[in-house]
Amino acid sequence: MPASAHSQTGFEMAATASPNSSGSQSPQTQRRELELQRKRARDRKSQQAMRDRTKWTIHTLGEQVAVLSTALDQRTRQLANAESKLAFAETENTQLRTQNAALQLSLMGRNGEGSDADGPPPSSVVSSAAHTVGSGPGGFGFGSLPTPVWELCPRNTPPTCLADHIFQSFVDGSRTGGALTPSSSNEGRSRSISVGAGKANLRPSLSCLIDQKSHSDDDDIHAVVADVLKTYREIEGLPEQVAIFSSISMLLKWMVLLDQQSWGLLPNWLRPTHNQIRTPHAAWIDRVPWPQAREYLIKHPEIALDDWAAVYSAGLKVNWPYDPSTVLLGASVNALGTSGITINPVFEEHLRQLRHWTVGDGFRRRFPDLARIIDLDCGPLPATIECPPIQQMSPTSSISLPHPSPK
What's the predicted TM-score (pTM) here? Predict the structure, then answer.
């Protein structure tokens, strides 16, 4: 056979075999594909198992977080309850210490001087045990049943200033704004007391002085006093603000109620003198702390409030020897609920002793005679006692008395 024919035959055989080779896979290739499929199946199972484990772990951790959160909330409530009890106990302890200190201060101020050491001479102020008779001006005269001294109100002239107009209008309106209440000492007489005044707390409430938004129906007297006090920009010290607010509030309550209880809360030196009851005078004189000074002002009506107010307010001091913030006790939670800010009993006893009230140099230069009378009314300053630790006002409860713009 020729070589060319042999070559052609081999080419044809290769061409015939090539379609069979391209249409089928070798065993080695099939094994590789099978192994790849098995590997993919194993990977899918592993990934599914990993996802299941992750879900289970997240679920378990979520349950643990819920349990721990519940336990934390319970512990937090227990801690808050314990802290509340501790704060209440500390407040009680502080109040007991301050009351004890107030008692010591009271005994020190009265030791060797009698129970009226901080008051005026007995002849100048109407005694709480005395009774006057008659129905004439001021309750003096003869021929009628006796009138209790706490029902003898000062004889005031028509208002001479804005403050007098506010206070006198409030007192008159409060007395006639409610139902008639018969007098305990005279069945034939009766007086009108407003419902708001009758419900008012006889102790000074500082809520109106500190926070204007805390005004309630029972705080009408305190709101009126606070509004007037805030117009006196010269009174800057917290002890002086609280002292004046407290004394005027007690005086105004007695003028509204005219009862024995409110009269008994007045310091001896703030009770009206005989001349205040008998002689017509400006109402602002009744708010002057010193009884002999009130007598002098009644005898000298030419001294007007405009002459008095600026130098008096700028120099008035109550000589509180401790931190000014300690005149108040902060609000606390007690068994009956939340109690408001109150006057420190030590400071309350301090301001009830007239010797602590003094005037400044400007007042002394303007009214030298009155300054000498005030010094005689006050007497020497007593020695102070060590003030116990006192719960101070928190920074967020600090007092800021806004002053209205001049009109």
Answer: 0.59
